[in-house]
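R.M. (postdoc): so does anyone remember the format we settled on? I'll just put the structure tokens first.
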């Protein structure tokens, strides 16, 4: 449908949730997959789903906050597949607390994964794409990267940073015909991050995602497949004239 047959995609954080949905959808569209994740069991389960769709998959256990691990893994994926056509940076974590109560360790951990991870993967893959004068990069940001939320300061700041990195890189590599965009999910359920956030919300006496569903104009919370649909579009030549964009997928919860 999107002309992705035979392409090679690398997805970080593909062991569960949004990353898994994206990897599986890309496989169904004809892509071979490289998976970067620290969750070995979950990554193997995703790989099995990719292979069930008839595509090759290679799992590289990788902590994206460590550049040397990322470089080693991407070099290995280039050996296995010969090229990388799409990089989807999805790995992320969340910590919920007011800024006054957020520990230095938690704040730095959020940035190490959510921001450094994007930088590390791009730094490892972009030279290869520039040499080939072709490539697509998609980053998972968030609607929380467009407006601050009490109790989510570290997470919001990290996602603002992801959008900034997306826009800056898009300008830097446009002449090499590399598209760089971000997806900004709204309230998405059926993910490990949402489970963690809901548990902390309950602990703090706040509403869970399902309890906030009535605030969403579309009338429902989102699911990982909602993000995967947009991801495959941005990975395709149908989005050839789009770069530097941060696309909301929020059911109307955030319109900008």
């Amino acid at each position: 449908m999107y002309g992705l047959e035979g392409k090679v995609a690398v997805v970080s954080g593909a062991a569960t949730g949004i990353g898994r949905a994206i990897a599986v959808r890309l496989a169904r569209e004809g892509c071979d997959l490289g998976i970067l994740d620290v969750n070995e069991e979950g990554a193997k389960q995703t790989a099995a789903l990719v292979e069930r769709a008839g595509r090759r998959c290679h799992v590289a256990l990788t902590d994206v906050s460590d550049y040397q691990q990322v470089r080693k893994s991407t070099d290995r994926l280039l050996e296995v597949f010969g090229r990388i056509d799409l990089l989807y940076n999805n790995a992320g974590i969340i910590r919920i607390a007011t800024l006054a109560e957020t520990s230095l360790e938690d704040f730095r951990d959020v940035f190490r994964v959510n921001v450094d991870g994007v930088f590390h993967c791009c730094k490892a893959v972009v030279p290869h794409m520039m040499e080939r004068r072709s490539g697509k990069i998609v980053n998972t940001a968030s609607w929380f990267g467009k407006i601050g939320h009490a109790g989510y300061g570290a997470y919001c700041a990290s996602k603002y940073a992801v959008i900034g990195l997306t826009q800056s890189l898009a300008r830097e590599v446009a002449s090499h015909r590399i598209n760089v965009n971000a997806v900004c999910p709204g309230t998405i359920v059926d993910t490990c991050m949402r489970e963690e956030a809901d548990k902390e919300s309950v602990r703090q006496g706040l509403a869970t995602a399902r309890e906030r569903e009535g605030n969403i104009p579309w009338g429902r919370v989102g699911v990982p497949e909602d993000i995967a649909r947009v991801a495959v579009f941005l990975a395709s030549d149908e989005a050839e004239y789009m770069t530097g964009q941060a696309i909301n997928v929020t059911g109307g919860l955030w319109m900008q």
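R.M.: ...and that's the designed sequence above, right after the tokens. Also worth knowing: DSSP finds seven helices and seven strands in the chain. The beta strands are 8-12, 32-37, 57-61, 86-89, 135-140, 178-185, 246-249.
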